[in-house]
Structure formats: C-alpha cells, structure tokens
Amino acid sequence: MAASKDLTGSGELIVEGLSVAYGAHSLAIEDVHLRVGAGETLAVLGSNGAGKTTTVRAITGVLGSHSGRIVKGSIRLNGVEIAQLSPFARVRAGIAQCMEGRRVFSELSIDDNLRAGAITRRDNAAILRDVEAVYGRFPDLAGRRKEKAGYLSGGQQQMLAIGRALMARPSVLLLDEPSLGLAPKLVEMVAETIAEIKSQGTTVLLIEQNVAMSLDLSDHAVVLETGRVVLSGPTAELRNNPRIHAAYLGGHTGAAAV
Ligand SMILES: Nc1ncnc2c1ncn2[C@@H]1O[C@H](COP(=O)(O)OP(=O)(O)OP(=O)(O)O)[C@@H](O)[C@H]1O
Ligand SMILES: [Mg+2]
To answer: Is 57 near ligand 1, meaning CB less than 6 Å away?
Structure first.
C-alpha cells in the first residue's frame, strides 16, 4: 500500500498540541508537544500519573480500549498525520510498542508471541532470522521457546515483550518502563538492547523509571508534570538542570516518583 510505504523508513515523530481525556474525567494530558527526530531517542520523564503512558497510548492508537480519546492535537509520522489510523495501521506504518506491565499473550508459546510481533510482515525468511536474533539477545527465552509465555517469570516476560516489539522491525519504538521490576543484571541487558536498537537507526521514545539510565540513552528529554510538558531540551543540558537533578538524580537513581 502506497500510504503505509510512505510512512515507513526513517521515523520522525512529531506530536503537537495533544490533549487526551478518559471518559468524563478532566484532561489527562494537555497541549503536549514532542519531537523525536529520525534515529533519535527521546526520554519522557515524569512522576506517577504525569501522563507518560497516556502519551504513548495516543501515539499507538490504543486509547479507545482504555475509554480515552484525543480531544485535540496532531501526531505525525514522517510528516503524515496518523492520529486517525487504527492501531494495526500504525504498526504497519512502523510504530511498535512495549507497553507498561509486560503484555504478553500468556496462553501462546514464546515462539508464537514473537511471531505475533511480526504480524504485519510477509518476509518469512527474515522473520525466522529475527526470531533467532531475539533468542540470541535473550538466551533465557531460547531454551523455552515452545512453552507458554504465561509460565515465564516476570522478568522473562518483560524480555519477551521487548523481543516481540522488535519483531515488528519498527522505525519508531515506544518503550514504557522496559526495566520495571527487573534485576540489575537484566536492567543492564535492557539498556544494552536499547543502545543497540538506537545504533541501528530506530527512533526510540523511552519512558524509564531508571532516570539515570534513560538520560544516558537519550538525545533529548521532556518532563511531564500533571499532563503538561514543563521542561524539554537536549539530554546533555537537562542532566545539569537543578530541577532534574533534585527530582530525579539526587542521591539515588532508581526512582522517578517525586
Ligand atoms: N483508563 C483510564 N481511565 C481514567 N483515567 C486514567 C486512565 N488511565 C490513566 N488515567 C489517568 O490519567 C492520568 C495520567 O496517567 P498515566 O497512566 O498516563 O500516567 P503515567 O505518567 O504513565 O504514570 P506512571 O508513572 O504511574 O505509570 C492519571 O491521572 C491517571 O489516573
Ligand atoms: Mg505509566
């Protein structure tokens, strides 16, 4: 399809004036502006309830299944408005996500979960190679490929969720707290994986409770506070910002809640 072909390739994501409401509640996010240049990584910081996940849901198109809706604003991928597209069409356009709370298909095998990530692809030989690449990246999964995903530990399910997102070969990858609940060694592995994804030219939007790690991995960062962007800029600048330092990096690096 010509339309989806135009959208794939380098992934520049621009969100402008985005406001979202859930049901009859007041706005969860208001007038949010974000720009992630092709191949860049943007860190989205903010305390619990600030609107990080809501922003990701609006970009992937899954607000409807959470009784939420875009009230106004635009979301453009490579200059093309995508806010009206179905979630599936957005995956086909190159957007993949690893959602908060490791959403794997627990009744499906690990293998089938990975294949499900490639549902928009037709290049079967490359899909098989990519499945093996995920197993190479996460050896814990490799020995258990025929087992139900529901039998995996929490951390292993998290690896599977990241692996499944990669199977879409996205141009834009949205990661919502990929290291949540993982042991330090696995957090390191997730960080390495993100660095590698980035080095392959994929655009990444990263929400990460481990703020030090998130700043290390990103080019730019935005800070959300009660649904609004209150700070944004190059990571190198924000890292030295006293507000960021006090709220996110002061003394400990593992907690985003402020
Ligand atoms: N399905 C929903 N229905 C009603 N309100 C919701 C829903 N999901 C989120 N909200 C509200 O929207 C606001 C933003 O929530 P969101 O989940 O986007 O925050 P977050 O920054 O991802 O927080 P956390 O760090 O805890 O994951 C919060 O006030 C939250 O209560
Ligand atoms: Mg969240």
So the answer is: no
